[in-house]
Design goal:
The chain is globular and about 60 Å long. Strands 1-4-5-6-9-10-11-15 form an eight-stranded parallel β-barrel, surrounded by eight helices. It is built from 14 helices and 15 strands. By secondary structure, the chain is of the alpha/beta class. Helix 1 packs parallel to helix 13.
């Protein structure tokens, strides 16, 4: 099991849908979140992409310099960059960071944003282009270990004698992650990626996705790993966690929800459509309406695009829900919470000790406390006074 955290390059705060309690997106804060994730024992972090975010590659490069073990899941965007340029960027980052790069293939689902970036392909064409893009990206990086060249002629991408002179540390290339809920997305995942990601849907729906992608991959003689992207609200008790979920929405008004849902409705993303369906377009905001599966809460998706569900509960409850997803075949969990700095600590302190040994063995050593409960910087507890 791998447990990742999230770098909030689009902003952070105590409440959803308001500027009250919001935190400025600056490097000092992002560095705090990254260093916390690194020292607490999270295996990696996801850095989001899109025009509402700071650039993920520049952000990841800066944060790699202030962390030691943390891996960075960074997006490549077909149509917004060429596959060979993306391959050189990936190889350079992987070399400089000592093999800490993971690549997130993102096709995009917001037509207005894509057109603003000069991309005018419909849903089907974007997946065609993404398939060609990642094929060239993979092949040119694999060839770089032997100083080779590759040529490719496709519908959207053509290269002749493409090469990367400086190969990545990871062979044959940094692992590729990818998420999508459409038929085209499942085909692409089955054919070309190492890990298929789903947003946090109820376990029954996640099981269907896993079975479908796994079967498509088997027909191609491949195996695929699976991951899930979820928010988390964990407190000492279930009751306290649900109170925190209510508090997260306590400054949210109907106009903000309606405005957000109108934007999401224009997207051609099947995953976004499925997220919206979980909370009925934001028309009802009671706990009963938003708890779509035991301890799976769709409140975040009222105003946040993309991943819109959270696990809510006490430590034992959240750990049990994680184990239930793991039993389906999920082995990578990408979590986040508001605010991201405090929630990174809270999740690590409350839930990490309850996760499987494979996770606990990778965590930092236990801190020692002094005679009055204070944490000793050196890890050495002084002997009691002889006086």
């Amino acid at each position: 099991m791998q447990v990742f955290w999230f770098i909030p390059t689009h902003g952070d705060g105590r409440y959803l849908g308001t500027s009250e309690g919001a935190r400025e997106v600056n490097f000092d804060y992002l560095k705090q979140v990254a260093v916390a994730a690194d020292t607490l024992g999270y295996e990696g972090v996801l850095i989001p992409t899109g025009r509402s975010c700071e650039d993920p590659w520049v952000t990841a490069a800066a944060l790699a310099a202030v962390t030691r073990n943390l891996r960075f899941l960074v997006a490549v965007r077909p149509g917004l960059m060429t596959p060979t340029l993306a391959a050189r960027m990936a190889a350079t980052f992987d070399r400089i960071s000592g093999g800490r790069l993971l690549v997130n293939l993102v096709t995009g689902g917001d037509a207005a944003e894509l057109e603003g970036d000069g991309l005018f392909l419909d849903h089907a064409a974007r997946y065609e282009a993404s398939s060609e893009f990642i094929r060239v990206w993979r092949d040119v990086l694999a060839a770089s270990h032997d100083d080779g060249k590759i040529s490719f002629k496709g519908k959207h991408i053509n290269v002749n004698g493409a090469r990367v002179l400086y190969p990545p540390v990871q062979r044959p290339h940094p692992p590729v992650y990818f998420g999508g809920s459409s038929e085209a997305a499942h085909d692409l995942a089955a054919e070309q990626v190492e890990t298929y990601l789903t947003w946090g849907e109820p376990p029954g729906e996640v099981a269907k996705k896993i079975a479908d992608v796994r079967a498509r991959a088997a027909k191609r003689g491949r195996t695929v790993r699976f991951g899930i992207r979820l928010h988390v609200i964990v407190r000492e008790t279930d009751a306290a966690a649900w109170a925190a979920a209510d508090d997260l929405l306590s400054r949210l008004d109907d106009e903000t929800v309606a405005r957000s849902q109108a934007v999401f409705a224009k997207m051609d993303s099947e995953g976004q459509r499925r997220m919206a369906a979980l909370h009925a377009g934001g028309t009802r905001r009671t706990r009963e309406a938003l708890e779509i599966s035991p301890n799976l809460w769709a409140g975040v998706g009222l105003v946040r695009g993309g991943a819109g569900t959270a696990l809510v509960g006490g430590p034992q409850t959240v750990a049990a829900r994680i184990e239930a997803y793991a039993a389906l075949g999920i082995d990578t969990f990408i979590f986040s919470g508001y605010p991201h700095l405090e929630e990174a600590y809270r999740f690590a302190e409350l839930v990490f000790p309850l996760l499987p040994r494979s996770v606990r063995e990778k965590l930092p050593g236990q801190v020692l406390s002094g005679p009055f409960g204070e944490v000793m910087a050196t890890g050495i507890v002084p002997r009691a006074s002889q006086s």
